[in-house]
Amino acid sequence: MSNLGNPKKWRFTWEAQSHSPNLRLFLFDSLTKPSVQCTNLNVQLNLSQSHLLLSWLKEEEEVSLRVPIPRVLIDSEAPVSLRALDDHIEVKLVLLLPVDHPIVSSFDVMLDSSENGDNVSSFDVAKPLVMDTDLKSLSLMEGGVHFYCRNCSTRLTKSPLRKFMEMPSIDWREIADNWFGACCCSFGGISEKLVTRFANSYRCSKGVCLLNLTTILLCKDDLVACNLHNGTHEYQPGLDFASDSGLSEDMLSSQERTDDLCEKLSSIHLKNNSVSTSVLVNKEEASGNELFSALPVSVFSDSEKSVPRCCVHTSDHVQNHFDEHSQSNVPETCQVDQNTSKLLANQKLFLNGFLGNVFMTKSYNLSMDIDWVEFVCPNCLSTLGACPFDNSGAPIDGAVRFFKCYISTCSSAGGSGDLFRKYSLERMFTNQLLENAKDELSFRTLVRDLKTKSPLVQIILLNPNSWCCSGYCLDTASATDSGWKLGLLPVIKVNFSDCGESAASQLRAHEDWTAKNLGDVVCMFAPQVDELIRTLSSAKDMFPPSYNFLQGLPLSLLPR
């Protein structure tokens, strides 16, 4: 009963939905039954001071609570809805515009800029995670970028990195399946060449940082005191990419020039559909430093093009063609330079989808030949990312994948100079969850342990477009401007079930649940999932008990 007069024991939660002009307030205390103990409820809206004053009678004694109002555009002329329920008090306000309206967003940006100046905005967490923005921001950093452990501020890189590139997608087959076939009628040799060039874009090179939405990929040679090892297998630094592939630096640069020309040839084909895709390349000149010549197959006769394996022609065909049109002697030719068509083992693994986003990977993108091992900070031993090893314990590509939520771009993590300050484990997980839901058309997900493949947590996506903020009530003597800095943050609503608390006999039920509901299956490292489960469990306290469960499963929130 004493909590009735103690404002700091009362918790408030504001909630709104995208595209809905309503704002709802939950006000509750674990020891109070408002429907019985709070009589003569009254609410006063004070927009000039951005707070809402609630009062009621308790045994003929008046009790008052003040709740800060977040940054929203409230319709002051609309009636305020108020009711007392068994475990909470509910207030509904009408908005002039939904919380995600562009005008409201611009309003927040202007206010935030005027209040904070050049300081870090408390509303950075409301900004979306966009990989293109990261790529541009990193590339514009003067003097290059160092990366640091977010936990202990230990510098991880030897020298500043200045070259940043987008990591190629492992889902390339889904958008390029029409390019591939058994003969030249489905792009034949050029498609193979484009695949080779695409695989070459996945190259762990010193001084180059590859990025995707959740991770960055750095070469071991760019890291301070990097000693990659898997259990008892310790990796001894060996040859670099060029020597491992049997190519010198000159040959690699020649290969890049060859790739550039073949890309231009393929683009020429796309602009002129009357020219066949199969291209004959002068081998002798292609391996040199000069721009090599290429001969389209369309110059051959119909009989030659209609024979089986029409993409393969001998040097006699080319020689006869040139004899008819010129007096010059043409060297032996072939379809492509053989050096440029060879793929390294790690590039083949990438093309098969096995070296993709290890933060959250699909179950079918895991290989028995790859052992993913967590990479920890050399100073504080906190998890920073992961690296792939083969069955012998040797690193596959000599690269480390750092999770953006565990690193920073300046020594003061979260400061104005930290380009990754928006990233958190929960937001990265949520963004991947929403992306998978869009691609797979499934709102049910089973998360497995990446190492043991055992189920860890089930998640059902209920609402991907919620906005929420929470805190404790103020008394009437508190500073009047404290509510002005309160802002609604984007969240998703989910049901979840901790599989780790289930008995061994119930594990089969999780499998049946996934199969029955056509759920998506993803894999993550167990420590990250444990942290997510703790966040989901604690987020339940943001709502009254009557809103903690839905259809027998806990109801919770995750930041978006």
TrEMBL record:
Domain of life from the UniProt record: Eukaryota
Pfam family, one: HECT_2
Organism of derivation: Hibiscus sabdariffa
PANTHER family assigned: E3 UBIQUITIN-PROTEIN LIGASE E3D (PTHR31531:SF2), E3 UBIQUITIN-PROTEIN LIGASE E3D FAMILY MEMBER (PTHR31531)
Name this protein carries in UniProt: Ubiquitin-conjugating enzyme E2C-binding protein
